[in-house]
Amino acid sequence: MSIVIRDVREHELDSVLALNNNAGLAILPLDSVKLQRFYQQAAYFRVAERDGNLAGFLVAFGSEADHDSSNFAWFRERYPQFFYIDRIVVASRRRGGGVGRAFYADVQSYAELRYPQLACEVFLDHGADPALLFHGSFGFREVGQNTMPNVNVRTSMLMKELCSYPWVRDTYGGQLPDQPWARARTLADATPSATPRANDP
């Protein structure tokens, strides 16, 4: 069956929280307060559906966001403008089935209309090779390493140039066409009554 990527709905946050906290050591745990803050503030907060079931989620922030991640702060100290993937989680039964690749294609389509670079990190202390290979296959490169305070986790800091951004900036100058696939996320889009968005081109 096809994978559908769409904005999260508020009533799904409990399921998202369970997905996150069952993901293992490669993802930091969340509580409901922080997840609600993600829901209110993230520029990109989408879930994947496969066979009608929640298969994963991805949360990302623009570089201008009020976001308290130490890894986000590391990027902001060094780069003026970027789109930051805070976390991606794929349900264990769906791993290896293309959900992660569908998310990265979707988040890049969103980001390259607005930012010159896409940023994320990979935890290095818990068998990082599959994640590093996955990101390398999408064109990410390591631009440094960071040790996260309080949790003492070492991360590989990854960045990808978004080659379409200069053309979009020069052509549209921040006034993107009013097309469903190009619109920014709003909480109105994320309510249960909103029409789900599939993988628009």
Automatic annotation (TrEMBL):
The keyword DNA-binding does not apply. InterPro entries: Acyl_CoA_acyltransferase, GNAT_dom, UCP028520. GO terms for molecular function: acyltransferase activity, transferring groups other than amino-acyl groups. Residues 3-164 form the N-acetyltransferase domain. SUPFAM superfamilies: Acyl-CoA N-acyltransferases (Nat) (SSF55729). Keywords: Transferase. Transmembrane segments: none annotated. Pfam families: Acetyltransf_1 (PF00583). This is Acetyltransferase.
